[in-house]
Amino acid sequence: MMNNLNELYDAILVGKLEDAVKVTKIAVEEGMTPHEIINQYMIKAMEEIGSRFEAGKVFVPNLLMSARAMRGALDVLKPLMQGQVDSYIGKIVIGTVKGDLHDIGKNLVASMFEGCGFEVINLGVDVSSDKFISAALENKADIICMSALLTTTMNYMKEVVAAVEASELKGKVKIMVGGAPVNDAFAKAIGADAYTSNANAAVVMAKKLIAAN
What we know:
Keywords: Cobalt, Metal-binding. Belongs to the methylamine corrinoid protein family. This is Cobalamin-binding protein. It comes from Bacteroides eggerthii. One of its GO terms (molecular function) is metal ion binding. The chain is of the alpha/beta class. It folds into two domains: about 5-80, Methionine synthase domain (Methyltransferase, Methionine Synthase (B12-binding Domains), Chain A, domain 1); about 90-210, 3-Layer(aba) Sandwich (Rossmann fold), CATH 3.40.50. The chain is built from ten helices and five strands; from the N terminus they run H-H-H-H-E-H-E-H-E-H-H-E-H-E-H. The protein has helices at about 1-15, 15-30, 35-55, 60-80, 105-115, 130-140, 150-155, 155-165, 185-190, 200-210; strands at about 90-95, 120, 145, 175-180, 195. Strands 2-1-3-4-5 form a five-stranded parallel beta sheet, with helices on both faces. Helix 1 crosses helix 4 (about 60-80), helix 3 runs antiparallel to helix 4 and helix 4 (about 60-80) packs across helix 5 (about 105-115). The radius of gyration is 17 Å and the shape is globular.
């Protein structure tokens, strides 16, 4: 079985959706748990593609293909994870802020979160503070994750933080920000709990924030 699962790792790494799905189905039939498959193979493959990306060895299309293959494999596992209260590390509401229509980076982060055991509510692009808040309340989210790719839209993050502070979510939900123009100093200035520069770092930080809660 191990060989098959190494094929899963490879399929995710090179972004082969059909192969990833096929191997995952075989693994499930042979009695492997979703946890084992996700933790030992899928996450490792996504971490590897993430570090190759950071090293400049692969590019955004490669990342997206890997994320797509991983999501396909995850879809096979999701029905098996229903009802396992402990099967998710936490819940994350994620979106690109109002006025901004970029979603490649945000979707990549969302995929990494999913592949690493979080439940993700992806609100898409051009998301208002009201939308972030109602989704976080409705889903009892642990973290609100905001992305922006433009210097003009990143300032809207401040409005979302202020709206959360003024809502019943105050103190109950952590706020993470990311995107090309955003940095640590900006995150601190607007009162966000954390800034991360890439998808791998976002997963590590989200785990820390939830553990601290």
